[in-house]
Amino acid sequence: MSMTTRTDDTPVPVPYAADSHELIRVHGARENNLRNVTVEIPKRRLTVFTGVSGSGKSSLVFDTIAAESQRLINETYSAFVQGFMPTLARPDVDVLDGLTTAIIVDQQRMGADPRSTVGTATDANAMLRILFSRLGTPHIGSPKAFSFNVASISGAGAVTLERGGKQVKERREFSITGGMCPRCEGRGTVTDIDLTQLYDADKSLNEGALTIPGYKPGGWNHRLYTESGLYDPDKPVRTFTQAQLDDFLYREPTRMKIAGINMTYEGLVPRIQKSMLAKDREAMQPHIREFVDRAVTFTTCPDCAGTRLSEAARSSKIKGISIADACAMQISDLAVWVRELDEPSVAPLLASLRETLDSFVEIGLGYLSLDRPAGTLSGGEAQRTKMIRHLGSSLTDVTYVFDEPTAGLHPHDIRRMNDLLLRLRDKGNTVLVVEHKPEVIAIADHVVDLGPGAGTAGGTVCFEGTVAGLRAARTLTGRHLDDRAALKDTVRKPSGALEIRGATTHNLKGVDVDIPLGVLTVVTGVAGSGKSSLVRGSVPAGAGVVFVDQAPIRGSRRSNPATYTGLLEPVRKAFAKANGVKPALFSANSEGACPACNGAGVVYTDLAIMAGVATTCEECEGRRFDASVLEYRLGGRDISEVLAMTVEQAEEFFGSGAGRTPAAHRILRNLADVGLGYLTLGQPLTTLSGGERQRLKLATHMTDKGGIYVLDEPTTGLHLADVEQLLGLLDRLVDAGKSVIVIEHHQAVMAHADWIIDLGPGAGHDGGRIVFEGTPAELVAARSTITGEHLAEYVGR
To answer: According to the UniProt entry, where is the signal peptide (predicted)?
Structure first.
């Protein structure tokens, strides 16, 4: 800082111009539903963005501030490097000033690749592999020898070299020692295919013997076998000779001419394994997943016992522990073991590994193990795992952006998360948090409240200031900030019980429990205590049980609430019946699509390293349908006008009058019941927030025929005001004769329950036991568990 002088010769500090940039200024933001939003966010402070689900929080924080920061950073790289990076368009905003490097820690699930684990998704596995390659005895090779993603290969042959102006041939040999188990190829499980589910042996191929999805007669998958010439397609499969059956089921890939085209023929079993079993189960289309569940059994690999590693990798040990043993340990125990290692030759490696493992424990994930498949982590667990690499970072003046970091956390763990957020801020960073929990809002230095409603009713800043100012403001968030659900005066009586005996899934320790039926039961406990293991692993799936979990909704920009919920089917039929034409005409993905944009409504132009350009289709003006289709009407509206309606408008339209369609009206009523009345029917799923997607999924399952509903943290992504609506929905389900079992941390849901089952007392091997069963009032009175303490504090007892 430079100095100037007064007339009395006293030096006066003159601030540097750089010190004036203390704000992130956003002027005129219009991404998604934002309506010319203008905010000024203080740097090096903790700012919480709140508002009802769908009010525009993520649009402002992620799609505007964080997206522009990342785009500007990407532009600093060469055009060649940018070609390998995702192309980002500039957000629709007038002014974005004062940005710093943004590090985004969102709730996107980790890659669900079968070989991805907690260890591989962080740096822990890489460091362990180096450690064992240096200290393990017997020494078996480089770090690759301990990787279950690297296969052992060897080869030899002649190579041609240019030497002294002459070409010289030399024999060369090479070998790579990998740690992959050769039997399961590093997956830990082997598959056994039930051949009776692939084909009907009593039929011939031409009679439709193949029962695999996508192998219908006439299709290329079917013709590959009927026209191969290796066997008679008119003979029943049962009459094939052994050689013909081997060709049909197991033949190695062979180039041959089929139907006049050069193609690769492959036996049915390896073809199914490559096309279907190589994919993650959750990524499959529902009908494919149903077939795989029916036809394939996954069993632990007998050669590696599920460790994924070769025998050689498992044989090398440090103090009697192999890398497979280390990865199977609970991380908190592994941290203790690593701390006991004292070897100066690898001191920097040990220090870094200790720091990573201690971060797992500090962030509340010490109950995990490094061999836990990444795809099995909940959204909250995945987000906290991503946080680990940032906790020990020396970077300052960085903008950290968090999307509901308390998702999936018990009130006891939320305090620990708050401490971590404050630590990041105190290191000189700007911390932006999208959050609904009042415990997190309470620690904010600055609050931005968006609303007043959701969707088209939101997108404006209702309040900007301190937490005290928010409480005094009459916004929806301000009014509900101090809301507390009261304990029920009377609870419902159960109509029966679901008996669980000797449950041992994951960390459960032979749990015996009776889950009451006909009431609202809440299963709670700290993260990792065994809640999901008890309910998902012990409640029998099948007829009568409806599971609504946190698995993400998969859908492209062509998918919308109407297609996802099945609403479009009765709507298309109603249009077809009213106009005497085919239902397929009223699908933008089928015959009714605009020929110019193929039903997308926009025309995309790829500009390579630059952001692609999407322009509204001039032919259909963004309505997605062919002009001739829009001439057909139902109740005075064409199909594009119906898809532009909100759920509330459509519920009225299909409930009575010329547009009356009972099947559509039932689905729309469910959408309104879960608080999605403001969504438009044709809104792309890619624009929905996490809370909206969770409720959309709940609405689709409300039509399922089942007596028991199992909900996994339905309050995720819900505003304080929406939780009250959710409680009303749960009550309606129970009053309709359903049994509702909810895995939940939210105290409002606990207080509203008829029965509580609390697991603990801790996480991982410190949990897995029932520590309380009874009514919420009894839990509060006893205060015998961590949950009891927090619930008592919540209800003011």
So the answer is: none
In contact, 32 and 38? CB cutoff 8 Å: no
Kindly report the backbone phi and psi dihedral angles of residue 605, in degrees, each rounded to the nearest multiple of 5, phi listed first: -120, 115
- Cis omega (within 30 of 0) on the bond before 662? no
For residues 547, 550, 555 and 560, what is the CA-based torsion angle, rounded to 10 degrees?
A: 80
- Residue 514 gets which letter from DSSP? E
DSSP strand pairing (706-712 vs 511-517): unpaired
Q: What are phi and psi of 347, to 5 degrees?
A: -55, -45
Peptide bond into 411 cis (omega under 30): no
What confidence tens digit (pLDDT) does each residue in 120-158 have? Answer: 988 899 999 999 999 999 999 999 999 999 999 988 888
Region of residue 528 (left: phi > 0; alpha: psi -120 to 50; beta: else): left
In which band, very low, low, confident or very high, does the pLDDT at 5 lie, cut at 50, 70 and 90?
low
How far is CA 100 from each of CA 330, 434, 435, 610, rounded to the nearest angstrom?
37, 18, 21, 22
End-to-end C-alpha distance for the chain, whole angstroms: 55
Q: Of 731, 754, 725, nearest to 52 (Cα)?
A: 725
Q: How confident is residue 543, by pLDDT bands cut at 50, 70 and 90? A: low
Classify residue 109 by its DSSP letter.
P
Residue 231, classed as helix, strand or coil, is coil
* Whether pLDDT at 606 is above 80: no
- 723 has a pLDDT exceeding 90: no
Chain-centroid distance of CA 100 in Å reads 27
Mean pLDDT of the chain: 89
* CA dist., res. 43 & res. 24, Å (int): 7
Q: What's the confidence (pLDDT) of residue 280? A: 63
Residues 206 and 234 sit within 8 Å (Cβ to Cβ): yes
For the chain, give the percent of residues with pLDDT over 90. 55
pLDDT category, 532, cuts 50, 70, 90? confident
Band of the pLDDT at 164, cuts 50, 70, 90? confident
Q: Which amino acid is at 692?
A: E
Cα–Cα distance between 668 and 323 in angstroms, integer?
53
pTM over the 0.85 mark: no
The H or E element containing residue 770 is: strand 769-774
Q: Give CA–CA dist 592/587, Å, rounded.
A: 5
DSSP, residue by residue, 259-307: TTEEEEE--HHHHHIIIIITS-GGGS-HHHHHHHHHHEEEEE-TTTTTS
Which range has the top average pLDDT, 402-416, 417-431, 684-698?
Answer: 417-431
Q: How many residues does the chain have?
A: 797
As a whole number of angstroms, the distance between CA 487 and CA 477 comes to 22
Maximal CA-CA distance, the chain: 112
Q: Which residues are within 8 A (CB) of 781 and not within 5 positions of it... i.e. 6 or more apart?
A: 797
Residue 14, pLDDT score: 67
Whole-Å CA distances, 20 to 24, 427, 590, 692, 744: 11, 20, 57, 39, 45
What's the rounded Cα separation, in Å, for the pair 683 and 674? 17
Please name which of 653, 689, 650, 690 lies closest in space to residue 671, comparing C-alpha atoms: 650
Q: How far apart are the C-alpha atoms of 238 and 196, rounded to whole Å?
A: 11
> Angle at the Cα of 627 (from 599 to 554), degrees rounded to 5?
20
Question: Could you give the CA distance from residue 651 to residue 676 in angstroms, rounded to a whole number?
Answer: 12
265: β partners: 254
- Decide: helix, strand or coil at residue 572: helix
Cβ–Cβ under 8 Å, residues 319 and 326: no
| Distance of alpha carbon 421 from alpha carbon 426, whole angstroms | 9
Q: Do the bridges between strand 496-503 and strand 706-712 make them parallel or antiparallel, or are there none, so unpaired?
A: unpaired
Distance CA 45, CA 399 (A): 10
How far is the C-alpha of 563 from the C-alpha of 199, rounded, in Å?
Answer: 32
**pLDDT for residue 666:** 92
